[in-house]
């Protein structure tokens, strides 16, 4: 009786209270799990980078963005192949170590212009892209003066500034121009070529494009003196000078004698003095070595 087993009563209230706690996973408040970051931002960033790489590859490699030809207009005395070769060398160079400058995105018009102007002197110069063609359109500074110094040769403009260097073949053509031969149209005349005056710098000073080797008034006076002699039948082959000791010039004539004159003075008066001396005092020009008209009315000859 005393040890009889009693039946347990079900405690529905307690069971109802415990059930919610048993339904959840246990979370230790001291070791809470970190919330997982969403993955879509990484996926979006990866897609954007991939799209950027694809677009960059397209713009860099697509033929439509590549300058594939060079057009040169305006060459008169300059060999257009020289201009084209200079442009193609630049287009084949690299920009930012990896990219060719032939790509329109990396082509620099000012850099191309600078390369051309370092080697040549132009009256006008236009460098522009026309779709896949690089157009170089210019107008030359026409020269009628050749400057020889230190085994190199250069063309000068009317102001006495260096226009460009001349290759050996061009220099030889200037110094020994070919004779114009062959038939002409009925009543036609053989075209007159512009005489290029040749200067030999005895000091052999190195010069560059853009340098002024003569004053503008000296260039004009030399041309005036040459034309005065030419009109009198005296042909001058070249002028010699030494800028280290002064501006006086020696003109070598085809007849074998020299004319010493001062291009900073009155060259017409000096030309008149030469002709007057030849007329009145020199009977045999073959024995003449020089005529010196640098000192006003005082004329010397040998």
UniProtKB/TrEMBL annotation:
Q: Where are the transmembrane segments?
A: 42-65
> Where do the POTRA domain residues begin and end?
65-141
Query: Predominant location of this chain?
Result: membrane
Instruction: Supply the alphabetized keyword list.
Output: Membrane, Transmembrane, Transmembrane helix
A single Gene Ontology CC term: membrane
Q: Where in the cell is it found?
A: Membrane
- Source domain of life is Bacteria
Q: What is this protein called?
A: POTRA domain-containing protein
Provide the species name: Candidatus Uhrbacteria bacterium GW2011_GWF2_44_350
What lineage does UniProt assign to this protein's organism? Bacteria, Candidatus Uhriibacteriota
């Amino acid at each position: 009786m005393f040890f009889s087993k009693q039946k347990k009563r079900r405690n529905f209230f307690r069971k109802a209270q415990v059930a919610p706690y048993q339904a959840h996973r246990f979370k230790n408040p001291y070791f809470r799990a970190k919330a997982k970051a969403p993955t879509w931002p990484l996926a979006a960033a990866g897609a954007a980078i991939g799209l950027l790489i694809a677009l960059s590859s397209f713009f860099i490699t697509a033929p439509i963005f590549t300058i594939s030809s060079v057009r040169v207009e305006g060459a008169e005395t300059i060999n257009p192949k020289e201009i084209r070769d200079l442009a193609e060398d630049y287009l084949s160079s690299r920009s930012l170590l990896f990219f060719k400058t032939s790509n329109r995105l990396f082509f620099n018009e000012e850099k191309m212009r600078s390369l051309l102007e370092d080697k040549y002197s132009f009256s006008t110069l236009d460098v522009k892209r026309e779709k896949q063609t690089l157009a170089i359109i210019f107008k030359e500074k026409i020269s009628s003066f050749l400057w020889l110094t230190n085994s190199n040769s250069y063309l000068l403009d009317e102001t006495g500034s260096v226009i460009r260097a001349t290759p050996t073949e061009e220099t030889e053509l200037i110094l020994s121009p070919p004779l114009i031969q062959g038939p002409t149209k009925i009543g036609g005349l053989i075209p007159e070529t512009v005489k290029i005056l040749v200067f030999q710098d005895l000091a052999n000073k190195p010069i560059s494009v853009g340098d002024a080797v003569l004053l503008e008034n000296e260039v004009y006076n030399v041309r005036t003196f040459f034309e005065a002699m030419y009109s009198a039948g005296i042909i001058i082959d070249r002028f010699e000078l030494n800028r280290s000791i002064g501006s006086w010039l020696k003109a070598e004539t085809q007849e074998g004698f020299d004319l010493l004159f001062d291009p900073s003075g009155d060259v017409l008066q000096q030309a008149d003095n030469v002709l007057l001396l030849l007329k009145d005092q020199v009977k045999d020009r073959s024995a003449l070595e020089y005529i010196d008209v640098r000192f006003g009315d005082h004329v010397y000859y040998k």
